[in-house]
Amino acid sequence: MSALPLVLEVSSLFIIVFILLHRYANFQQQNKLILTATFISWYFSFMIVILLPMDISMTTYRQCLRDTPVIIDNQTDNQSIPITKCKEPYSIISPKYLPVLWRIIYWTSQALTWLILPFMQSFCQSGEFSLSGKIRGALISNAIYYGSYLAIFGFLLIYVAIEHNIDGPKLKVIGITASNTWGLFLLVLLLGYALVAVPRSLWLKSNTSFRLKLLYFKLAKLHSEKCEAEEQLEDILNEIRTIAEKIRYNHPYRSFVDIIVSKCPESFRNGLRRNVEDYSDYNQSTYDRDIPSEKTLVKLHYALIKSIQIKDRTSNEWYLMVEEAFQVEDILLNESNSNFKFMKTIPFRRNFLMDKICNSTLEWFYYCIFLKYFMRFVSILLTCLTIMVIWSEMTFFNKRPVLSLFAIFLNASRTTYNYLSIEIIVFMTIAYLSFCAYFAIFKIRIFNYYYLAPNHHTSENSLIFSGIETSYTA
Fold first, then answer.
1. In whole angstroms, what is the distance from residue 256 CA to residue 127 CA?
2. Residue 150 CB burial class (10 angstroms; 0-12, 13-18, ≥19)
3. 121-130, 158-167, 402-411: least confident range
4. Among 120-124, 144-148, 196-200, 218-222, the least confident range
5. pLDDT value at position 386?
6. β-sheet bridge partners, residue 450
7. Are 315 and 226 spatial neighbours (Cβ–Cβ below 8 Å)?
8. Are 110 and 179 in contact (CB under 8 A)?
9. CB contact at 8 A, 376 and 370
């Protein structure tokens, strides 16, 4: 009995999730509690991919112990040693640990999905200036959110409770069932998109001319978004400049204005001029009725934070997409190059290994030959997996004869108690389904509310939303 495979897989997954979170989040500027909660939600959701194959192999091993007769060896002195023909899986661990681990993952994911992450999402979206104000706003927002749920389903739940005499344990089962049903519904939607989108995107990406046209289209659209974000930020900064000149130094709201100004770009802060009466004593009788209320300042504070995030994200996307467009243009021009040497119009980023081992000839074969056909091969392979998944889902409940391809492969391995092949089959199946589901979560965009932008430009709200969605599917 060895837990070494589990420790290695869990440690490797920890590093992968950390690198993935570092790609999207900004560790230096964003709240550490939000980063930790997002990391845990991603980590526990991805951990199912490595735990489920082990669980199935151990279940097969226990079934082997039940079905195989045990032989008692009495040849030793005064001892009886049971001997079985069942071989232990290489990844076997104590049966009492795995259920505990499953409970930790499940209930932690439920707490994150329905309590912790929604509260954090409301907290980070709040424009309040004090910690107590942010907490109060988050509690009120979540109370309205869950109150609407109770208003919709409360009468139905009361009716079912009266008719069927539901007690506490049954109510718990209903809650778990409702949560799992919503997770399965979301998973069906994500897989319905990604099972087709994943192989299709690879196939289209292998077509250099089509990829370049698509980039041109995206650049035109992104340029308009970038200009709109810059104009929106400029309007907000002008409003802040007007308010900063109206609210004098010893005004009660001046501390709020200072907090707002501190979030503005450095060039704006340096160019902001104080009102000439900034240091004059504040007099209630000379109160300017045009001075905004505290609620208006709260809304302006949130609008500024959101506008800066959108502007930074669109600028970063523009830079990365322009760089990709130049690279694809170079690839398209070099595909017709007869001397088999890759010629660049501008240098683009490569990893350290490529810089050391690649010359212009190897680079030409890599970008113009190998990468194109490799992506097509992987696309065809993933298309076959998608067809197998769809066929297996359609024939899932057909027991005699068994028509699901994955069930046929798994039953063949279980007949011979080949634990390694069992874990490989289950791992490949769950890994592909999980990859497709999380591909959709990481690629979809809901206006400016949710979008995972690489290069550390994902907002805290989007990180939390992705954590909620991954926990739903866990």
1. 11
2. exposed
3. 158-167
4. 144-148
5. 95
6. 446
7. yes
8. yes
9. no
DSSP 255-272: HHHHHHHHTS-HHHHHHP
Tokens representing residue 457 in the block: 């430009």
Rounded distance between C-alpha atoms, residue 20 and residue 7, angstroms: 20
Q: Quick check: 389 and 431 in contact, CB under 8 A?
A: no
**Residue written as token pair 């970063």:** 316
SS3 443: helix
**DSSP H helices in 247-370:** 254-262, 266-271, 294-334, 352-357, 360-364
Look at phi and psi of residue 456 and say left if phi exceeds 0, alpha if psi is from -120 to 50, else beta: left
Helix (H) / strand (E) element for 19: namely helix 4-24
71 band by pLDDT with thresholds 50, 70 and 90: low
Residue among 46, 78, 59, 52 at smallest CA distance from 417: 59
Q: How far apart are CA 438 and CA 253, in angstroms?
A: 45
Helices (H), 358-474: 360-364, 371-394, 405-415, 419-443, 460-473
For residue 235, the SS3 value is: helix
> In angstroms, rounded to a whole number, what is the distance separating the alpha carbons of residues 363 and 107?
50
- Write the burial class of residue 318 (CB in 10 Å: 0-12 exposed, 13-18 middle, 19+ buried): middle
Instruction: Indicate the pLDDT class of residue 277, thresholds 50, 70 and 90.
Output: very low
Whether the model pTM is above 0.90? no
Of the candidates 33, 42, 172, 47, the one whose C-alpha atom is nearest the C-alpha of residue 116 is 33
The position carrying tokens 């065809």 is 380
**Over the stretch 93-108, which tens digit does the pLDDT of each residue have?**
777 888 888 999 999 9
- Tokens read off for 162: 């009266």
The pLDDT of residue 445: 83
Stronger pLDDT, 417 or 296, i.e. the higher one: 296
What pLDDT band is residue 273 in, cutting at 50, 70 and 90?
A: low
The span from the CA of 228 to the CA of 239, in Å, is: 17
Instruction: Report the DSSP pairing between strands 81-83 and 71-73.
Output: antiparallel
149 burial level (CB within 10 Å; 0-12, 13-18, 19+): exposed
Residue with tokens 């609210």: 247
Distance CA 122, CA 128 (A): 11
- pLDDT of 384 > 50? The answer is yes
How far apart are the C-alpha atoms of 361 and 225, rounded to whole Å?
39
Distance CA 54, CA 47 (A): 11
Tokens describing residue 165 = 């005499």
422 vs 412: CA distance, rounded Å = 9
- Estimate to the nearest angstrom the gap between the alpha carbon of 149 and the chain centroid: 25
What is the C-alpha to C-alpha distance for residues 16 and 242, in angstroms, rounded to an integer? 47
